[in-house]
Amino acid sequence: MSEEILINVTPRETRVGVVENGMLQEVHVERASKRGYVGNIYKGRVQRVMPGMQAVFVEIGLERAAFLHASDIVRPTPVEGSEGNGHVPSISELVHEGQEIVVQVVKDPISTKGARLSTHLSIPSRYLVLLPYARTLGISARIEDEEERQRLRDVLNPLIGETPLGYIVRTNAEGQSAESLAFDVTYLGKVWRVVQENIAKAKMGERVYEELSLPLRSLRDMLNEDIEKVRVDSRLTFENVVKFVHKFMPNLDDRIEHYDGERPIFDLYGVEDEMQRALKKEVPLKSGGYLVVDQTEAMTTIDVNTGAYLGTRNLEETVYRTNLEAAQAAARQLRLRNLGGIIIIDFIDMSDEEHKRQVLRMLAKGLARDHAKTTVYPMSALGLVEMTRKRTTESLARQLCEPCPACNGRGLLKTAETVTYEIFREITRAVRQFNAQKLLVMANPAVVNRILEEESSAVAELEEFISKSIRFQAEEHYSQEQFDVVLL
What we know:
With 488 residues, the chain is an alpha+beta fold. The chain is built from 13 helices and 24 strands. The longest helix has 24 residues, at 178-201.
């Protein structure tokens, strides 16, 4: 499989695209005005304790106070020899209002919610994650070979020695040399010492550790032997990338290229068009079927439809083929649109149990290359597949779009007919409350045209009923639902 990483940099925005076999699979956007906070560590102050929710709000210098749950707070180490009695401390035992506390952002502010915090700090490097408050050595579950897992333990245990720090071995550490792992241990030790110094001198609300910029973060997490090329269209970013890769991944130095072509790099690979399509609700399938993707506050739903696809044998075969293609497309859309949280995929009903299993296998295969953690549950009797995908940042649509001002984010507009009758009711209501000789109605041209062309007799009856004349004025800048009744 051909896989490339494209980095597009403009003064106020950086975008990273992952292209597999010529097709965009992932896109990440970072704007200078809205750079994410995930991974950043702050010295905060407990603002409010909420015993009923077992949580606190913490002031860390952001627009909204951040949220910290009791389960995300490092617990005091039990005194040796004490029984403990299985006591789980309440939030009031762990923190108090006004307390200074060092926290890390684990989820960016999303919609109306503040950032989510944890005191279980973690600092990632290329192959490891440092856990300053956990004396443990964990290995990613994605490294399945038991011999390799043991080799990694054998390499790291002497390196860690008696340090009171914990580590998690990341998936891309598989097959790496002892020298590479030793480098990461040393690097993380230095970073943690700097963080400790910053904590000691920081004031409340100050950042003591900042996560890498999007280009470097993307390469740290995604650059491996499978990536053929990394193309960067900014000379300055290219130089920074080269230094970073040379320091942490010297064996992949030759993969980095500066792109200086005349055509924008995202145009060259069709990424711009793919991003535009990823903002639409409907996703066409090659077979003629299509997906309908709906993102709501609570969950994302993906509905599968056969569309124009009739198949060649029978209905069950048609449904099966459509669902197979839909499973693959749905996995790609989740990754491309960065959809997270609860996701429900409504496949077309199938009676054949083997067909159901094959569709689930296809979905799992499509999700296998996803960097976000996903959990898929068995298909229900109604053909629904419930799944979760870890979300740390806003979806692509919510990063690039805002609610429609005409429909206030509903995705629907009242018809001109509905607005017409609302206007008639408002006129009746207004003349009962206020004295006026005549009325002026200002509304969208489509509404005014409909009233004058199709409702002229109703207007005449209304004028007779209220004993006042009504004049209608079209306003181009009014949305279809907007109108004003003015008493003259």
